[in-house]
Amino acid sequence: MQDTSKHTLDINAIRADFPILQRKINGKPLVYFDNAATSQTPQQVIDAIVNYYTNDNANIHRGVHTLSQIATDAYEQAREKIRAHFNAQHAHEIIFTAGTTHGINLVASGYSQLLNDRDEVIVSAMEHHSNIVPWQMMCEKTGAQLKVIPMTEQGELDLDTFDSLLNDRTKLVFINHVSNALGTVNPIQEIIDKTHAVGAKILIDGAQAAPHIKADVQALDIDFYTVSAHKMCGPTGVGVLYGKEELLEALPPYQGGGEMIAEVNFDKTTYAGLPHKFEAGTPNISGGIAFGVALDYMNAIGFEEIADYEMELLIYATGQLKDIGDIRIYGTSVERKTAVVSFNVNGTHSYDIGTLLDKMGIAVRTGHHCAQPIMKFYKIPGTVRASFSFYNTKEEIDLFIDGVKKAKSMLL
Ligand code: 7TS
To answer: Could you give all domains of the chain from N- to C-terminal order, each with its CATH number?
Structure first.
């Protein structure tokens, strides 16, 4: 196929950075379209992990010895890179976590001690379970009432209803920047402004946005933002929670242990300042360092270039899929989507399509995508989700489209 696209990325050079893309699966070249679950890892990030354990491994913030100092400096440099990437005002507003789930639980657990049964909190119908369940647990503890912003058939949020849910009892709103199951990019600036207008605070789950969109937490006036490194070319088991300094100061600690204390006495223990108050125990040191390298890697390619190219892939794949016929696509807000296409072949189950695609070397996710309320809204058990990254190609989409056609003809 002739490449008529206008992007400026050297996709072959980029693909050469990702060793796993050379793999064969079931005897076929891997076509990896499960990037929304986890992204693949470039050699530069793999090297950073190997280098850490080969040359620099030591516990951080603890020893006077040289190796501990080297590891501490590398970890803190990564925190600074992450601060700069999200344009946080202070490095201590960047809390290292195990990932988005951990970051949300940290905030929900803190608010469990601050809210009461007169308070109201708002979630959306379009969330990953990790941005629903921790808040339900918080509501059980505090008696606070949980309200839900409904979604529309196109897979967008109903902001008129959001207006009617907000009032002076609203204390917190938690919403994703981008939906994992549909790819919808939510209008977070508008949602943040409306939330602040009633004096409430907002947590934005940035897990699916961060691989595609560089959020400026100060320009957007975000209170809390959570991301996972493994969705943005980094390793699993590490992520960050951004929080505004005064909000993190006011939040009780999540876990007790080493590193998070100022002074321990049996009658009273005092806590360390930010960020250490929220970083009990030995963290994922190599993971934090490698996350910084992953951000360097993506920034060197450029987030705008990445978004432009991925949009080309999305438009191409959406058009080709529609041409197959008997396809229902969920989340049709194309101009406000990341490169995710969630669909079903009419009369088939997503699992069967996914299993047949896997036989052809094509990795997609099937099922409810940890977003059961969305599936209930559409009255379906699940979808097939193909999610693209900047290292994917139109040729791979052609293989995927052929695969869906074959699967359809085998099942119907
Ligand atoms: N929030 C959103 C919007 C997500 O998409 C995910 C993971 C999470 C939170 C949780 O992130 P974790 O790194 O703590 O696990 N989403 C997916 C997915 O769509 N397929 O697999 C994982």
So the answer is: 11-42+302-411 (3.90.1150.10), 46-300 (3.40.640.10)
